[in-house]
Amino acid sequence: MTAVVTGGNGAASEFGSRSSLQSRLLPFAPYVIVSAVHVWLRFADHPASGPTKLALMPLLAVAVWWATARIRPWPGAAVGMLTLGIVLSWLGDGSSTFFPMFENEVPMMILCFGLAHVVYVLLMWRGRGIAQRGFPKWSLAYIAAYIALMAVLVQHTGSLTVPVLCYGALLVATAAFASRCGPVVALGGLFFLVSDAILSFRIFAPETMPDWTSGAVMLTYTLGQGLIAYGIVQALRLRSAAR
Known about the structure:
The protein is an all-alpha fold. Helices cover 76% and strands 0% of the residues. Residues 1-9 and 11-16 have low confidence and may be disordered.
């Protein structure tokens, strides 16, 4: 009889664990679905990739608020910071749409994403319970990546050399600070870095990049943003449970 009860509790525990996982993933499902559609459209060079791109960050912001709605006490400051980073990224995504007064969209794109990275770094650095450790030794590779990337890019950046150097430093800082926040956020930071590295070459040295890299930019970008947001939300959930 005891064995039967124990087995039942184990099954209930497993079911509860699966149910909990589903509840954590559900808020991000719309973002994942639209991201997959957008990436497919981008690889296919379909005109509908433009509108779907502008839907990505709003859906991710909704996912963050939905996923944190039942956390008590509600981590409003951290959620607000994460949302601000996502909104700034959205403005960067649609720089040509949101800032039509500028003939060249690249400076505003760099500014918006640069500010987004400042917000992400501050959140990962100062947000209580988000960082799980110090900088791992392997994160030093990001310094080498920055030096190599900038050494190649500055040959093509012209008047935007200083903004690109500053943006590159912020991008690498996000990836480095993400490495302190557990494997999910760390992987997100890496994907974000890869995405912007590809995008940089598409902007400043387009002759070196095949057409399919347009899809690769958005594949790595959506993964990066999604993993960072999801990982931070789970860290906030664990922080609340530990109180």
